[in-house]
Amino acid sequence: MGLKDIKTNENIIERMIRSVRNGSISHAYLLEGDRSIDKLGLAENFAKAILCKEGDGDGCDCCTTCRKISHGNHEDVIYLEADGSSIKDEAIEELQGRIRKKPYDGDRNIVIVKDADTMTLRAQNRLLKTLEEPSPGTVIILLSENIENLVQTILSRCVVFKLNTFIPQEYKNVLEGAILIAGMLLEGRPFYEMSGKLSEFTASRELAHELLDAMETWYRDLAVYRYDSNSQLILYQDRIDEIRDKSRLCPFGHVEKAVAALEEARSDLNRNLNTGYTLKNMVLKISS
């Protein structure tokens, strides 16, 4: 898979490909989007495009470089992620030591920072020094769900791409469940009719968070549709007919109540409350 195989965020994909072709690659990028978006997959495909010697602005997906990136074991692609709940200063310091070294295989080091918005303030300030004086050939790609958690000085030194939702196969079941539960809530169904579907998302906090993200995006589209006559701002474009029909039946007060309950549930999950209890409480609050 290469950048051209990604069927949404076409403008961003085209900018990435053009920058590789023109040799105008920035030293730092920030990809922002919710949990359902495969930001890591996009970052890795961009890394292929940058490092591949065979493609024309995109990865060929056949050479040794592309295959190594696909398998997550390319020597010059460095991954950094949260240790526990945050990325700490020490991790950035270790990263700085690594990218001062020459690349092993080519002429670039690519750094992919998952959960970038969990960096502590000290870690962000340390990373800022690297962004201000980047090592030659290094490209840093930050992945974030909420850029408001990042200091402005970091944002100003990155090319920021705001991603619309594109759904990997593994998220399709989550989306289907989110739409079904939201529809049952809108119809005023009793809780016992929803409990079976809801229980499918209680196995882990990660899965519960994915459900909350999908439901919140769905409610957002229902609200936006009323004011977006051309449907250009709708994120779930492949569901536009269903969004149109549900939007007509959905009072704005219901959307407000649902979003407030979803945010409260997200906070409860972050405080390690029981997943099943949290989702049940959310549904009861929306339906009250």
Q: What would you say this structure looks like, in words?
A:
This protein is an alpha/beta fold. The chain folds into two domains: 3-162, P-loop containing nucleotide triphosphate hydrolases (Rossmann fold, 3-Layer(aba) Sandwich), CATH 3.40.50.300; 169-287, Zinc Finger, Delta Prime, domain 3 (Up-down Bundle), CATH 1.20.272. It is built from twelve helices and five strands. It has helices spanning 10-22, 39-51, 64-70, 89-99, 121-132, 152-155, 169-186, 191-199, 205-225, 240-249, 252-270, 275-287, and strands at 28-32, 77-80, 110-113, 139-144, 159-162. It has a five-stranded parallel sheet, with helices on both faces. Helix 7 (169-186) runs antiparallel to helix 8, helix 8 (191-199) packs antiparallel against helix 12 and helix 11 packs antiparallel against helix 12. The protein is globular. The mean pLDDT is 90.
CATH superfamily of the largest domain: P-loop containing nucleotide triphosphate hydrolases
Looking at the overall shape, the CATH architecture of the largest domain is 3-Layer(aba) Sandwich
Task: Quote the average pLDDT.
Answer: 90
Q: What's the number of helices? A: 12
Tell me, what's the shape?
globular
User: In the residues, how many domains can be counted?
Assistant: 2
Round the Cα radius of gyration to an integer and report it: 21 Å
Report the structural category. alpha/beta
Q: Please give the largest β-sheet.
A: 5 strands, parallel
Instruction: Give the % helix.
Output: 40-55%
CATH fold field value of the largest domain:
Rossmann fold
Unreliable sequence segments: none
Order of helices and strands: HEHHEHEHEHEHHHHHH
